[in-house]
């Protein structure tokens, strides 16, 4: 019996506009496939509530990596296996959001009350743990290599969260922060571990599911890390421009811009807002430079001859610009 092949056809690309449209069509179809798989696997309504209306950025980037490796010629069974793996990624990401909201004291998530506000802190913490267990079991069902990748990625996310907590409570209150490299050292480490790690793992796991070589898997892992880094920078820039207070970003950033030291206790809420408004052009410039740097690194990786040449490789090249510009559109910026 001949095994069926999972093939979806996307518009032929002739212009940049056509290419962007083809990428958008691919992402839309893949998003629908991921949602369907989530609802097939997850039966707990509380967990489904947490996962509801997620952007699925990590699985979508993983899908581009997967398809780049297979050229879109994978079997239906292999594609379903990949989709099952994306659920594990979303469970880990969702759990991190639940716990982040508790730690940060955020009251809303995706336009609704944060999960811990609805259910209480105790329930939210335990549901988050349950999500991690479900995700690990899914990863383990795909073999030791995927399971180890899952655990390592979650370990990195935890290290990033710990760095952020310690940065907030210790570095900003007890230690003078100089203008030189302190901001970039700590802030970059937080992003690398807390955000970029899961992006990286999603792309590397996708290569594993596609049965690609270790060289390709490692290359895609680096690609995911760079895109994740750029995405988080863009997300923080949007927050800063909207005037949302992020202690771990605003205070050290202002310190760097003003070329002096500062202590958290000396910076009041109102004065911070004024300083953000005053320094807005410099803030935009700093962030856009860093975003472009990481996007260009991702672009360089995409152009590696090691990766197979096909339409999905082109999508992989365009994806960072597409996702980041979509976010920056909120503050009328484009890279």
Outline the structure in words.
This protein is mainly α. It has a single domain (16-331), classed as Farnesyl Diphosphate Synthase (Orthogonal Bundle). The chain has helices at residues 16-41, 45-51, 57-70, 76-104, 115-119, 121-140, 144-174, 182-209, 214-242, 247-258, 269-278, 280-302, 311-328, and strands at residues 108-109, 112-113. The chain has a two-stranded antiparallel ribbon with strand order 1-2. The radius of gyration is 20 Å and the shape is globular. The chain starts with 15 loop residues before the first helix and ends in a 7-residue tail after the last helix.
* Count of the separate structural domains: 1
Main β sheet profile: 2 strands, antiparallel
CATH architecture: Orthogonal Bundle
Order of H and E elements? HHHHEEHHHHHHHHH
What would CATH call the homologous superfamily? Farnesyl Diphosphate Synthase
User: Given the C-alpha coordinates, what overall shape results?
Assistant: globular
Under the CATH scheme, which class? Mainly Alpha
Element layout with pairings:
Blueprint: H1 16-41, H2 45-51, H3 57-70, H4 76-104, E1 108-109, E2 112-113, H5 115-119, H6 121-140, H7 144-174, H8 182-209, H9 214-242, H10 247-258, H11 269-278, H12 280-302, H13 311-328
Antiparallel strand pairs: 1-2
Helix pairs in contact: 1-4, 1-13, 3-4, 3-8, 3-9, 3-13, 4-6, 4-7, 4-8, 6-7, 7-8, 7-10, 8-9, 9-12, 9-13, 12-13
In short:
The longest helix has 31 residues, at 144-174. The protein has one domain (16-331): Farnesyl Diphosphate Synthase (Orthogonal Bundle).
């Amino acid at each position: 019996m001949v095994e069926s092949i999972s093939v979806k056809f996307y518009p032929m690309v002739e212009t940049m506009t056509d290419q962007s449209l083809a990428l958008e069509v691919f992402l839309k179809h893949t998003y629908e496939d991921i949602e369907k798989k989530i609802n097939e696997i997850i039966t707990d309504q509380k967990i489904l509530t947490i996962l509801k209306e997620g952007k699925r950025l990590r699985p979508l980037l993983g899908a581009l990596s997967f398809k780049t490796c297979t050229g879109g010629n994978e079997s239906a069974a292999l594609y379903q296996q990949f989709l099952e793996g994306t659920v594990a990624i979303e469970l880990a990401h969702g759990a991190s959001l639940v716990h982040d909201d508790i730690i940060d004291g955020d009251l809303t998530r995706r336009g609704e009350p944060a999960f811990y506000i609805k259910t209480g802190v105790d329930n939210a913490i335990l549901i988050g743990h349950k999500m991690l267990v479900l995700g690990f079991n899914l990863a383990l069902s795909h073999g030791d290599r995927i399971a180890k990748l899952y655990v390592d990625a979650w370990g990195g996310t935890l290290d990033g969260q710990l760095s952020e907590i310690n940065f907030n409570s210790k570095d900003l209150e007890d230690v003078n922060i100089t203008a030189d490299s302190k901001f970039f050292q700590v802030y970059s480490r937080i992003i690398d571990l807390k955000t970029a790690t899961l992006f990286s793992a999603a792309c590397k796991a996708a290569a594993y599911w596609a049965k690609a070589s270790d060289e390709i898997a490692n290359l895609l892992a680096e690609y995911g890390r760079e895109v994740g880094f750029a995405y988080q920078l863009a997300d923080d820039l949007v927050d800063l421009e909207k005037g949302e207070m992020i202690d771990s970003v605003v205070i050290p950033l202002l310190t760097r811009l003003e070329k002096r030291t500062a202590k958290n206790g000396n910076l009041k809420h109102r004065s911070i807002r004024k300083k953000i408004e005053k320094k807005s052009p410099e803030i935009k410039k700093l962030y856009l430079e860093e975003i472009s740097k990481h996007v260009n690194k991702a672009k360089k990786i995409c152009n590696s001859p090691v990766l197979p040449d096909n339409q999905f490789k082109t999508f992989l090249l365009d994806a960072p610009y597409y996702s980041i510009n979509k976010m920056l559109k909120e503050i009328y910026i484009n890279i």
